[in-house]
Amino acid sequence: MKAVILALALSCAGAFAPVNKAAVRAPVELEAKKSVADLSEADLKGKKVLIRCDLNVPIKEGVIGDDTRIRASVPTVKYLLDKGAKVAMCSHLGRPKDGPEDKFSLGPVATRMGEQLGKAVKMAPDCIGDEVASIVDGMGDGEALLLENTRFYKEETKNDAAFVEKLAAPFDLFVNDAFGTAHRAHASTEGVTKYLSPSVSGYLLAKELEYLAGAVDEPVRPLAAIVGGSKVSSKITVLESLIKKCDKVIVGGGMTFTFLKAQGKAVGTSLVEDDFIQTAKDAMKLAEEKGCELIFPNEILVADAFDANANTQVVSSDAIPDGWMGLDNGPAATKMIQDKLADCKTVIWNGPMGVFEMDAFAKGTFAICDTLKELTEKGAITIIGGGDSVAAVEKAGLADAMSHISTGGGASLELLEGKVLPGVAALDEA
Asked: Which pTM was predicted?
């Protein structure tokens, strides 16, 4: 039965993103949880379903800048509607400070969601209350509704019991398809499961767990991780977790220089977190103990200023001159990384190799994009988890060439760290 559930989940999720069939394994954290694919038409027809989506999209003056998250929610919503459910979507948008604000209204999202579903999506004036309950009660089978921003209430993030009860009151069952907020125990992610049964995962959540949890807990080896970004402090817990599980870990980006300084090398004016020198030493020791090959760039593109028009030169990683800062990998480092990845069957990438927002320092990051595309074509499982890495592959036009692009930044990191996600843990046992 689980194999059938997984196949359904991946085929429906595939309507949003391509699936590398070689990656299909039982989803580690989800295998003991109920999925939306467990629910038949008999279970859903005429039922009032509350689904938590991640519809936190950029909106400026009523115009949606990127509808990726909306499109990612479509497969699960469509499945529920096709089975005759009365579907009410809920989500947060932005960080409203004190109650409702027009700029944080989900109104534009309702319109775009309707376009994606090919049917009208009603917009509720609120997410709780008698008026919302009346609208839900008046819905026909197969109709869709979007509740207003749950974070118009501070009680949402506090998981306030009274608010939770009001949010859940009009509904029969709950589906969580918001991986991006599954690491938060909020009213709309964890609280409502106490009142609605069944509470199950959606296809997007299932797919995220299949790839991210599966990659580190039941990997197709050799398993490599590429961990970049600016700071050791923000990545050390995930780095340590990956060192324990991976065959190879490649370190890149600004965090490289804290490690190089920990090795006694000169780093010029490169970004260094002096408070984390010992942490870097401990990570290197851990890698040695675990038999994980910890790899650092052997060549650095340095500049005399943090400026797109700065003077640049390529130097060895142990010869960074005074007054110069490392802002990208050099060609030899890129070649070395490509060689190290050549035999890998699973690769997780979190964090860029340099300041890719500036063209002068983007080559190292975009070379990784090209390399992962080639590996995917050869059958490797490639997983992009983290906002900057996702932005890089999208800017390179290669997002569709990867096995999986994660929709959750913080949730991705916490799952890779081995943490339990409250929004997943709260779902019904299978």
From this structure: 0.81
